[in-house]
Specification:
The chain is mostly helical. The chain has helices at 2-19, 46-60, 84-91, 124-130, 142-145, 149-158, 205-220, 224-278, and strands at 95-98, 107-110, 174-175, 183-184. The strands form 2 sheets. It has a two-stranded antiparallel ribbon. Strand 3 and strand 4 (183-184) form a beta hairpin. The chain contains 8 helices and 4 strands, in the order H-H-H-E-E-H-H-H-E-E-H-H. The two termini are 52 Å apart. It folds into 2 domains: 2-69 and 116-222, Cytochrome Bc1 Complex, Chain D, domain 2, CATH 1.10.760; 230-284. Helix 2 (46-60) crosses helix 7.
């Protein structure tokens, strides 16, 4: 039992260490910054999430969708936590196809909180054709789908550089230090001041990249904070349960050990009595 308890404690310890690493990093040279959501106790920076949504909406949403996220998520606890009125106002800026109506026709209407985020293109083919043959990936789970996670996205956004001498790139292809193969068909989407933050934060490239990356990490796991809390509670519960089980085992086995000792003492007494009897003259034994 003690061996099992030690193994479980080791597994929990390893899990806690791995939890602090948001995603496996293949490229150890990724740009790094301090992420508030790292670690088992990490939480999202609300203001950064709100700024990140603004960057996504003004810079990225023209090409990239977030098809698994709903407008209601913007007002939920653990996310950007816009007020209900703010989230409704955000949703109303977009139109969603609905229907059919009484005439059997589809129609467009303002988005509601229950709707998924509006897509920039009706289908993959249209998105590919509009972007020179390169399909702009959906960003719903981008942070989880890419090795390196947040650091990869952050580095990619800041990784555009001059093409090295001797390397030729086709028209519409750009050099990026952190893109596999160093070739990317998306031009640098960020530059200083491209967005005017509503809260007055200076919109440097580093700040823009950090905020939109934070938003994309949250978009990939909207309930990350509640999952961390539940996981921590489960670990504490398991530790308490295992402690009680171990103490119960010790108590039960201590009684059995005590009884065994008593039986052994009784056996020793009987054995001594038999030995004494065997040493007596049988004629005198009564």
């Amino acid at each position: 039992m003690l061996v099992l308890l030690n193994k479980i404690i080791i597994i929990i310890f390893i899990t806690l260490i791995n939890f602090s690493v948001h995603s496996e990093e293949i490229n150890v040279n990724y740009k790094k910054t301090n992420w508030s959501f790292d670690g088992i106790f990490g939480t999202f920076d609300r203001t950064s999430l709100q700024r990140g949504y603004q960057v996504y909406n003004e810079v990225c949403a023209g090409c990239h969708s977030i098809q698994y996220l709903s407008y209601r998520n913007l007002s939920e606890i653990g996310g950007p936590e816009f007020s209900i009125e703010e989230a409704k106002a955000i949703a109303s800026q977009f139109e969603i196809e609905d229907g059919p109506n009484s005439d059997g026709e589809m129609f467009m209407r303002p988005a509601r909180l229950s709707d998924k985020f509006a897509k920039p293109y009706p289908n993959i083919e249209a998105a590919t054709a509009a972007n020179g043959g390169a399909y702009p990936p959906d960003m719903s789970v981008l942070a989880k789908a890419r090795a390196g996670g947040a650091n990869y996205i952050y580095s990619l956004l800041l990784g555009y550089d001059e093409t090295p001498a001797g390397l030729e790139l086709d028209d519409g292809v750009y050099y990026n230090t952190y893109m596999p193969g160093n070739k990317i068909k998306m031009s640098s989407p960020l530059f200083d001041g491209i967005v005017e933050y509503a809260d007055g934060t200076e919109a440097t490239m580093e700040q823009l990249a950090k905020d939109v990356t934070t938003f994309l990490v949250w978009a990939s796991e909207p309930h990350l904070e509640s999952q961390k809390k539940m996981g921590f509670k489960a670990i504490i519960y398991l530790i308490i349960l295992l402690t009680l089980v171990y103490m119960s085992k010790q108590k039960i086995w201590s009684k059995l050990t005590s009884k065994k000792q008593e039986d052994e003492e009784m056996f020793d007494k009987v054995e001594r009595a038999v030995s004494e009897y065997e040493g007596e003259d049988p004629k005198t034994f009564k």
